[in-house]
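chain and backbone:
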Amino acid sequence: MKRFLLLLIVALATAAFAAKAAAAQLHPATGRVVTEEGQAVEYATVVLLQNGEQVTGMATDTEGRFTLEVPAGDYTLSVLYLGYEPLTREVRVEQRNDLGDLTLKSAATRIDEVVVTGQLIRREADRFVMDVANAPAAIGKDGVELLKLAPGIWIDGEKISVNGKTGPKVYVNDRELHMEPQQLLSYLASLRADEIRKIEVVPQTGADYDADSSGGIIRITLKKRRERGTEGSVSLTGRTSEREKMLAPRVNVNHHSGRFDLYASGWGNLRKVSFLSDEQTRYTTADTQIEAHSRKKDRGRNFGFRAGGIYEFSPAHSIGLEAEYWYDRDKGPTDSRTDFTAGGLATLSESRYDTRSTANGLSTTFNYIWKIDTLGSTLKFLADYNFRDSDTDNDNRTRIAAPDRTLDSLYRDRATARYNVLTATLALEKNFTPKVSLRAGAKYTCNIMHNDALYEYCPAGTWLRNDAHSFRLDYTEQIAAAYGIVKADLGRWSAVAGLRGEYTSTRGKNSTVRQNYFSLFPNANVSYALSKDGAYSLIAQYARTIERPRFWCLNPQRMQISDYTYQTGNPELDPAFQHNVSLTLVLAHKYTFTGGMIVQTDEIQQTMQADPDNPDLLQIAWINYDATKNYYATASIPLQPAKWWSLNLNATYIRQGQRMEAGGPEIYSNIGYASVSTTFTLPAKFYIDLSYRYQSRVRLGNCWVEQMHFNDASIKKRFGDKFTATFTVRNPIAPPTQKVGARGDGFVRMVETYQNWTSRSYQLSLTYNFKTGKAFRRKNVEAGAAEEKSRL
């Protein structure tokens, strides 16, 4: 620890000395962009030009303010924002310049007056930022559609990944969402672009985040509310395709009066989904093969609501309380037909798996925030409680017609899962100067999990317990953590260095196993501005993180996929540790190129293997890989070919090496992701969106997914500032199937699936925004249970 602190001090001192001369040459020019009514303009594009060339620029913050640092001299100031006339002013920058309030006037809607030079995506030191509030490409989109535009983000069915790593934590207004994958996407899809101010993607986190943040962070900031008034939105989205019928309403209301901030939102999702799969399995150790066909029909109902409030005792002291509840219900049968051929003899199995599942989630958050000084220093106490329960019932029946007999089989299972998560966090952020700060804190977490499953079969009219499959699993985990981070902005140099320590104690893994371990998680971020205006910069990052098993991965419940395939969890999973190193080059504030390496031990992944008791059955199970290495390169290129045309290009390449077992071979594969999206701004507030996304063949252990293509086309129309209508055709020319394969000891399995998210669909979205009162910055209750909620 002493050596680490000494190296940190030396590094910061060296950076300060190296940057001192360059920093002295720059002078700040500050100001505020407002409307004719005096309201702040968020994310207006402000630039300083000299001889017609841009010297520096930025987007205004939530209060409409900006600070630009340039050498002393004469400049042309330009302010641009969609829907307003451009503002141009000659200014002189000397020691320190306050340019005051810059007022924008409303513009007409003719296409030749629309000027959009602000980019949808920009790069900051440790993250990508999507300025949704000032981008035609965002109009009419929902949260999921916006995420698909973000650099490094890939959404495949119900899975979100950042630079190839799944399981990122998702925050909305500093509060982490704690939902199952399907429910998370349903909620994100209910968010409208008109409600969102910005989206930030943090591929590599620091010590102030939980160490279990290896999948990265996605932060969504919603727009402001009204002063002594109310604002909100109502939206309805409908989608139809050959595989899906969906209807999703949403309402959002925010109110401010005096010292109180109150907010509430509700969402729902009603849908019918069908799923088809064709399977072919060949057993390489015998003259045996399987040909199976399955059809699953699912009727889903889920809804949720959130309400919270903040009370300010004084400008320095406030408390907040928030509660959230969600409910999810799915039911529907899976019909399966399988031809099993062994030694030339065929056996036909016909089955119906009737599944009913319900889940409830309740979250409560309390916080107290003390603003210590005028530099923005704060002391926070956060307390969170999260509860979730789920119940699953499966009634299965199978008729097996073998060459010598016919057998009818009845079996069923009843499974329950209960999770309780409690966290308490104390966090200090001390700003010594506007450019030097310290963040430190401590956190305690208690996770309690209970799983209970009863499996029965009915051989002769009487239900009998299957002791081999029934189980009871109790799991308790306690985590104590402390961290400290130093940040310094020193002219062209900026540095962030932190260290987090976590002690973990677990009890009840398979009723016998206990784990106690302490781990250190350092991180460092050093950036250097290659040009005086900061438009060109180089950023180096390092972080060590941990990935603890998701709770549902630990659950050993068996879920029948088809007649000869089932899925199960593994209560013996160990945590995975990861080292992440990256180097990013930023050009002209917006073009970014990143190269990096991720080295991971005990990666948690799924594999397909033969059932230990019956080699004819295949098991999809969670295991720890021995070692994984990912070498990756990403590029983000936002373009503005014309004032009415914006274009975003994103690409990721991964060279992946995986060793599943200690002493086994290390298998390398190449993975590529690419996306292109473009928006055309037309007269009369019409917009056209086109997008294309590509995923190459992906290999995970002994399984793989063949390459896939996705494409969307949308037309949007805005009616004033309150009403937006969007019509979208998804996958109009994409192939309708997904192909998955697996190769294990004694078998090769290929499955072709027809799913709702790969088929052609038609979607209509209607959004109405309402507001009363003056502009006021929106506040939300901050939560501290980030790591734990994601594991739910």
User: Anything to note?
Assistant: The first strand starts at residue 27 and ends at 34. Residues 1-24, 108-118, 774-779 have pLDDT under 50 and may be disordered. The two ends are 34 Å apart (CA to CA). The helical segments are 2-24, 143-147, 181-190, 551-554, 786-791.
